[in-house]
Amino acid sequence: xxxxxxxxxxxxxxxxxxxxxxxxxxxxxxxxxxxxxxxxxxxxxxxxxxxxxxxxxxxxxxxxxxxxxxxxxxxxxxxxxxxxxxxxxxxxxxxxxxxxxxxxxxxxxxxxxxxxxxxxxxxxxxxxxxxxxxxxxxxxxxxxxxxxxxxxxxxxxxxxxxxxxxxxxxxxxxxxxxxxxxxxxxxxxxxxxxxxxxxxxxxxxxxxxxxxxxxxxxxxxxxxxxxxxxxxxxxxxxxxxxxxxxxxxxxxxxxxxxxxxxxxxxxxxxxxxxxxxxxxxxxxxxxxxxxxxxxxxxxxxxxxxxxxxxxxxxxxxxxxxxxxxxxxxxxxxxxxxxxxxxxxxxx
Length: 347
Ligand SMILES: *Cc1c(COP(=O)(O)O)cnc(C)c1O
Fold this sequence. Notes:
It is built from 13 helices and 11 strands. The chain has 347 residues and is α/β, with parallel strands linked by helices. Helix 4 packs parallel to helix 10 (238-249) and helix 5 crosses helix 6 (104-111). The chain binds pyridoxal-5'-phosphate.
């Protein structure tokens, strides 16, 4: 059993959270004079539901979890930040993470004055359970995994993630921002099996809604209750709540985008493989490919000159001379391939 009271920061355990007008009166009424709102300009005059229940019910149906197991944040970034603020004592605690991975875990650790312990992946961008556990000490509060991983694109081994969940008593965070593009179910179906598991999803990738800033954390309801206690009371505004609810009604559209992008990813892989400048294309379960080329900076600069921007990951652990290329529309992908053919012809 995950012993929440042992892992949570003492000040958060004892925190008396802000109580809003909407917290104090819940129910049906016709005259609301309790929150100093302007009576004009409906529906935007009213504070939104602080716990976003309507939206969470829709998300719960699509994701197959209970609404009480869902936290909504302003992007996954807020979900990551509340994890630090709930569990890590600044200046004392630490977190362990795979390396390379998504940059926000370290930035959030730095902002919260929490030591960040990166553990290098192997050449295939997979991790070793003992390597991670060897970096754990009495002050390690979180382990961050990202699967499919950014920037490598591969899924981590499900068996190893399970081993880690069984052997590490603290929270294991599995960031599944790209899970919709993978051919495996991810860890949401196992949420009720592990009460030390936190899974992160986002509207920014498969859902095509990076601009609305909506991230999801899934965990045991007792952990979600802690996040709700420390978040800004009205973190998810009404525009976002409504737009996301509409998107959930259009779920078949999202599935169609995912199918298209996965097919495009494989086409792009085959086309890139024919180019002399390409040394290696890593396996991907995401909507991008990590590609090793002869001279990443030179290829990057050439593409910029053509108005095509990819991500140069040359300076990242294990990513020497690698570019991270997002799958675009068929037309955008063709422009990229044409440009890389011209590059090959020009050198
Ligand atoms: C893109 C991405 C996210 C999304 O972050 P948001 O704040 O929800 O936009 C989360 N995790 C990883 C690993 C990502 O690559």
